[in-house]
Structure formats: C-alpha cells, structure tokens
Write a structure and sequence with these properties.
3-stranded antiparallel β-sheet, HSP20-like_chaperone, mainly beta, 29% strand, stress response, cytoplasm, SHSP domain-containing protein
C-alpha cells in the first residue's frame, strides 16, 4: 500500500488513510433530482415551515405553522402511500414605485417538508384542515397485519 495518495484515479484499499475515496453513507437512498430542488432564493421560507408530529392511539397528527397563507397556497400530498409532503408558497407583496420600505423581515418563497409515514399509517384516509395559520394533517392508524407463524415440530 502506498503512503502517497494517488491523484490519477487509481482505486485504493478501503483502509488506506490517504485514499481519496470517500464512503457515502447515503448511497442508495432516494433523494430528489437536482432539477427538483429549488434554489436557496426560492426556498427562503423553508426553515420557517415548522412542523410538530405527534402520535396518538388512533392517528398521527402533523401541525405546521403557515402564518399568513391561505389554504389555496398550501398543498398536502401523499406520495407512493408512504411519504407525506406539505408544501406551499408565499408570494412577495407587489411594490409600488411610490413605496419606501424601511424593513422587510417576513419571508417569501416556497417551502416543502417531507415525512416518511410508518407502516401503521392509513394513507388513504388523510385529512387536512387549516385554522389561524396552523395546518393540521391527521393520518389515521390502521392495524398492521402480523405474519402467520406456524410452529414446526422438530423430530429426532
């Protein structure tokens, strides 16, 4: 094993401390395509879409703070029966030539939050409601089918 790292593309041993190869712990995970990821300017309010997730005996309840948005500006989707996505967009106010802005602190832009639903979630019965700037998404639980276990007698 060489003590000098190869910069010419030679594959090296995984235990070589000077290897330029880096193990990717997320290899194989499904992530959005680069074209699906909005730019940082488009996602300025991403961090402001705060979501609480609690589990009750009968359902999973998600509460998202989306102040100032109408229900038409928020979208709730279930993808592949297992991924809950809450997204939306807050548009900027139209500027008038005569307006003078002294401070702009409210964010605008797109936001998106995704959650992998557990096995016991019934994705076909999801309900959403919005009141006072809080979006509440309720995902009822369903009984998870347990596999049939058959005991086999051991002879001998």
């Amino acid at each position: 094993m060489s003590m000098i790292p190869s910069i010419f593309g030679r594959r090296s041993n995984g235990f070589d401390p000077f290897s330029l190869e880096v193990w990717d712990p997320f290899e194989g995970f499904l992530f959005p395509q680069r074209s699906e990821i909005p730019s940082s300017s488009e996602m300025s309010s991403f961090a402001h879409a705060r979501v609480d997730w609690k589990e009750t005996p009968t359902s999973h309840i998600f509460k998202a703070d989306v102040p100032g948005l109408k229900k038409e500006e928020v979208k709730v989707e279930v993808e592949d029966g297992r991924i809950l996505q809450i997204s939306g967009e807050r548009n900027r106010e139209h500027e008038q030539k005569t307006d003078t802005w002294h401070r702009v602190e409210r964010s605008s832009g797109k936001f998106a939050r995704r959650f992998r639903l557990p096995e016991n979630a019934n994705a076909n019965e999801v309900k959403a409601a919005m009141e006072d700037g809080v979006l509440t998404v309720t995902v009822p639980k369903e009984e998870v089918k347990r596999p049939d276990i058959k005991s086999i007698q051991i002879s001998g």
